[in-house]
Amino acid sequence: MRGRVARRLVAVTVVAALVPLPASGKCRRRARPSLPEVASPRTPLPSPRQNVLELALKAYECARSASVVAAGPLTIIDYSLPSTARRLWVIDVPTRRVLFNELVAHGKKSGENYAEAFSNEPGSRQSSLGLFRTDATYEGEHGMSLRLDGLEPGINDRAMERAIVMHGAPYVSPTVIAARGELGRSWGCPALERGVERRVIERIKGGTAVFAYYPDARWLRTSRFLRCDGGTGT
């Protein structure tokens, strides 16, 4: 009897010796599940060039003081940049935060990659400069579109007559730039990339300001919104 007990003790001891212990000699703790990564804050969008932003804000404040445009975001288009650049901005004026920074086409007769000629004339197929007020939206051949009312006589005040509207277009996209080296062109409308236009239009509709810039000497010298005397009217 004692012999059998002894043999069992020896067997248990041998088995225990064969079971490996943790390297530390202590029991390992169960690994904790990894925590989800905390999303990093969104990188701020690029802003317009300082001189263009200052001119746009000057025109905006002048128009607001005369109640010509509604309080709200300010849209800036810098036509001195190539069509391959994201040259349209929508800005929250109180905070100066950029809400959108998008591609935008210019008129077919305004130039190739760079816009160089601007017009207020019907049939010109050129873009217009100056301060506009956003008007009504509608569903047309380009989908959701936003009418623009030109506020500067002789510069853009025939925009409604010319049917100058903001809309989406298939010729505005990074794919088109990669294939052609430039965007396609409109008949004078500031056309946006498909999939973006509705969000932009919804944000800026309702009488807000759109400022289209180019260093045109005559316009810069004569624009009533850039030399505001408090008497600006509609």
Describe this structure in words.
The protein is built from five helices and eight strands. With 234 residues, the protein is an alpha+beta fold. It has a single domain, classed as L,D-transpeptidase catalytic domain-like (Beta Barrel). Strand 4 (130-140) and strand 5 form a beta hairpin. The radius of gyration is 32 Å and the shape is globular. The termini are far apart.
CATH level 4 superfamily: L,D-transpeptidase catalytic domain-like
At CATH level 3, the topology is L,D-transpeptidase catalytic domain-like
Query: Main sheet?
Result: 8 strands, mixed
Gross morphology is globular
Regions with little confidence, pLDDT below 50 for 5+ residues: 1-40
Strand content: 15-25%
Number of β-strand runs: 8
Strand order of the largest sheet: 3-2-1-8-4-5-6-7
Please state the CA-atom Rg, rounded to the nearest Å: 32 Å
Number of domain modules: 1
CATH architecture: Beta Barrel
CATH class: Mainly Beta
How do the SSEs run, as a string of H and E?
HHEEEEEEHEHEH
Mean pLDDT: 86
A few lines on this structure:
It contains five helices and eight strands. By secondary structure, it is of the alpha+beta class. The protein has one domain: L,D-transpeptidase catalytic domain-like (Beta Barrel), CATH 2.40.440.
What attributes characterize this protein structure?
234 residues, alpha+beta, L,D-transpeptidase catalytic domain-like, 8-stranded mixed sheet, 23% helix, 21% strand, disordered N terminus
